[in-house]
TrEMBL record:
GO biological process: one example: phosphate ion transmembrane transport
The organism's taxonomic lineage, starting at the top: Bacteria, Pseudomonadati, Bacteroidota, Bacteroidia, Bacteroidales
Membrane-protein topology: Multi-pass membrane protein
Sequence similarity: Belongs to the inorganic phosphate transporter (PiT) (TC 2.A.20) family.
Secretion signal span: none
Protein name, per record: Phosphate transporter
GO CC list: membrane
Molecular-function annotations in GO: phosphate transmembrane transporter activity
Top-level taxon in the UniProt lineage: Bacteria
Residue stretches spanning the membrane: 6-24, 45-63, 83-101, 108-128, 148-172, 184-209, 229-247, 254-276, 312-330, 453-477, 483-505
């Protein structure tokens, strides 16, 4: 039996490594997005500084390990088998849930995941134990007070972080403005001094004073002399910041990099328990059982877990190193960073999220409230405040999403809030805090314009909704897994272990395919980064060419699928085509927005000349989808209802037309992809002839319908008539697309 538990413990430790990779992929956004979004330094420099912070924070994180041991459950009333069942269920669920969210590119919370998984597993076993022994109550099995304080702290931190983000960023922007280099003489040293003092207090003074690595007399001295240390830290750091400013060293860049270190340190100190706390608690439980359990896993109760964790320094160092490797190599980390940076960037760009009814209502209510309050603010005050928020004066590094003032506020404020929670042993969600600080600061910075506010609010709602879903999914999934393991015994445990391995392998394969597809739109990223209008125009023509040629190929592919689906009565093909048309319609909206943003950056004379032809081409792309949907709808209904198949005479009559349409579409696609329109006149002429031919066939089909008195053929006759009509429209759209593209490229 000990051998079986040894295998489980080894698997828990292996999952701890996976969890470190998956969790850091998710949480790297917390301490990297501000420095990366503001482009304060090279990516390698930011990673190095964050790595040092992670390493220091990992070494100092031992005190947080108690959350996994007795923060949620009372282990004294659980035997060894029950505790190991809970720990294995938590780790299995945790890896799957976090990897799923990372694959979707949504920042979720490792803290929420861990807490609610522990809560779900403990809750379901508590119910079973209370049923078996009525003398036991929830308070005997569940540390409800601690669990409640942790949950409240997690969710209250969302509102606190958002509100403080708005207030602090608004004050900072009023002081420094977007053209912050002109307003540094008397303020930057004080700002830097306050920032450094806050970080020093929460990270070094409070952090070191409660670190298990500090000697007791040193801790006592720090506590007794805190006020003096704060005063001298503020005075000294303010002087140093003023010297930096006089030496033309960018103080904001220094604060951002210092904040990156501090936030990475706070992250590791707070969140390391989320990744390795449970496996190490399982290891301690196993060692205690081997030494004192006498081989009876159901009679040996885990009193030892009531004591505080004494995590060896070597384990913490290894965990820190694994986190650094994960942070520097994970493609998923970069994807989650992109989500957070995109939602908080200063300018417009590719909006990752669409519109939603809730977001529209929130934006409308906010605008109404702003308009109401604006009536009571003196005009002079309003004008002065507006003068401090002139975004056209923003100083942004090449490719930066926002400036260094906002980056500094994000990092300093998030570090303070997270470390404050850590020092009180409340595992605040670093994801919640940093994300909501970033959202609050971007709102205060007026980054959410009327053109982008609905999309940004939808994004925030989606991410926050994902967090709440994480809580529910983690609780329910872990409770279910724990229940199955409890009744299924070792067989169920090993089956779940095999399932985790399978899901992780499959998830990485699927994510690789998805990342490969998303990486294709590098042209748009280049358009947004360059400031040369001529280069933007050159890149835009390539982007439009690629989009329109793809739509042309896609339309032809779906056209043939729909016709084949009818001929073969294959409703699966038709259903798949319906889904693909809907998906492509959403993609076209995103591509149109991207290209419109780029069109605003091209030379004015070119934009004025080509604007009309661009929109005609885009409308043609959309019309292809609408035409195919109109063709598909009656066909799918006909096939789904198992009505009469398409007569062979119709198939033979339509086949030459279909082949000619395919040929013309292929020739059009070749011209669109190469932007060489050498067959332009021939294709248009042949398309006109084919439309006339379709008119003749349609007239013949009318006559055939009039003379055919077999009512059973009426439905398929109407479906065929619709195909002929939409085929004509399909050709007209192709002509419009080709004509618009020819004029757009200046031919």
């Amino acid at each position: 039996m000990e051998a079986i538990y040894l295998v489980i413990v080894v698997f828990l430790l292996i999952l701890a490594v996976f969890d470190l990779f998956v969790g850091v992929s998710n949480d790297a956004v917390n301490f990297l997005n501000s420095a990366i979004g503001a482009k304060v330094a090279k990516f390698k420099t930011v990673i190095f500084i964050a790595s040092m912070g992670v390493l220091v924070g990992a070494v100092m994180s031992a005190g947080m390990m108690d959350v996994a041991r007795h923060g949620i459950m009372h282990p004294v009333n659980y035997n060894f088998h029950e505790v190991m069942t809970i720990f294995l269920a938590v780790m299995v669920t945790d890896v799957i849930v976090l990897d799923m969210f990372n694959t979707l590119g949504l920042p979720t919370s490792t803290t929420v995941s861990l807490v609610f998984e522990l809560l779900g597993g403990t809750f379901v076993l508590a119910i079973l134990k209370m049923h078996a022994d009525p003398s036991l109550g929830f308070d005997d099995l569940l540390n409800s007070n601690k669990a409640l304080s942790v949950i409240i702290a997690i969710f209250v931190s969302v509102a606190i972080a958002f509100v403080f983000g708005i207030i602090v960023q608004w004050i900072s922007r009023v002081i420094f403005t977007f053209n912050y280099t002109k307003h540094l003489r008397y303020t930057v040293a004080i700002f830097g001094g306050i920032a450094f003092t806050c970080l020093a207090y929460f990270i070094f003074i409070q952090g070191l004073a409660k670190s298990p690595l500090m000697a007791d007399d040193a801790k006592a001295w720090i506590v007794d002399n805190t006020n003096m240390l704060l005063l001298w830290t503020f005075v000294g750091s303010t002087i140093v910041m003023e010297v930096f400013h006089l030496l033309r060293i960018n103080v904001f860049k220094f604060v951002v990099l210092m904040g990156t270190f501090a936030l990475a340190m706070a992250f590791a100190g707070n969140d390391l328990v989320n990744f390795i706390g449970v496996p190490l608690a399982g290891l301690d439980s196993y060692q205690d059982f081997v030494a004192n359990g006498n081989g009876d896993d159901s009679a040996f109760f885990m009193t030892s877990l009531m004591s505080s964790a004494k995590t060896p320094l070597l384990y913490l160092l290894i965990a820190g190193l694994v986190m650094i490797v994960a942070m520097t190599t994970s493609k998923k980390a970069q994807n989650v960073i992109k989500t957070s940076v995109d939602l908080s960037r200063q300018d417009e760009g590719d909006e990752m999220f669409g519109s939603s009814k809730a977001a529209r209502s929130i934006v409308r209510a906010t605008q109404d409230a702003g308009g109401f309050l604006g009536k009571y603010v003196p005009k002079s005050v309003s004008n002065w405040i507006d003068s401090r928020f002139r975004k056209e004066d923003a100083i942004l590094a090449d490719g930066a999403a926002f400036d260094m003032v906002r980056a500094a506020v994000n990092l300093v404020l998030a570090s303070m809030l997270i470390t404050f929670g850590t020092n009180y042993k409340l595992p605040l969600s670093t994801t919640y805090v940093t994300f909501m600080v970033a959202m609050g600061s971007s709102l205060a910075d007026r980054a959410w314009t009327r053109e982008s506010a609905v999309f940004r609010v939808t994004g925030v709602i989606s991410v926050i909704g994902g967090w709440f879903i994480t809580a529910g999914v983690a609780f329910g999934a872990c409770a279910l897994v724990c229940l199955v393991m409890y009744y299924g015994g070792f067989v169920a445990m090993f089956l779940f272990m095999a399932l985790v391995v399978f899901l992780l392998v499959r998830s990485n394969i699927q994510y690789g395919k998805k990342a490969k597809e998303e990486g294709k739109d590098d042209v748009f990223r280049l358009m947004m980064r360059t400031r040369d209008p001529e280069i933007v125009w050159d890149l835009l023509t390539k982007h439009v060419s690629r989009t329109q040629s793809f739509v042309n190929r896609f339309a032809l592919e779906q056209f043939n699928k729909i016709i084949d689906g009818l001929a073969n009565e294959n409703h699966h093909v038709l259903s798949k085509s319906q889904r693909e048309l809907k998906s492509e319609q959403e993609q076209l909206k995103k591509f149109r927005r991207k290209e419109l943003l780029a069109l605003r950056r091209v030379p004015m004379e070119i934009a004025a000349e080509r604007n009309t032809w661009y929109h005609l081409g885009v409308n043609s792309d959309s019309q292809f989808i609408y035409c195919l949907k109109r063709m598909l709808e009656p066909i799918k209904e006909h096939v789904d209802n198992n009505f009469n198949p398409m007569p062979q005479v119709y198939v033979d009559e339509y086949r030459p037309v279909r082949d000619k349409i395919s040929e013309l579409m292929e020739r059009t696609e070749a011209m669109l992809s190469t932007t060489r329109f050498n067959e332009y006149d021939d294709v248009l002429s042949e398309a006109d002839k084919l439309k006339d031919e379709l008119s003749v066939i349609r007239k013949h089909h009318y006559d055939r319908m009039q003379s055919d008195h077999d009512v059973s053929n009426l439905k398929i006759s109407l479906v065929y008539l619709n195909i002929l009509q939409e085929s004509q429209e399909f050709l007209s759209i192709m002509r419009h697309q080709l004509r618009a593209a020819n004029r757009f490229y200046g031919n």
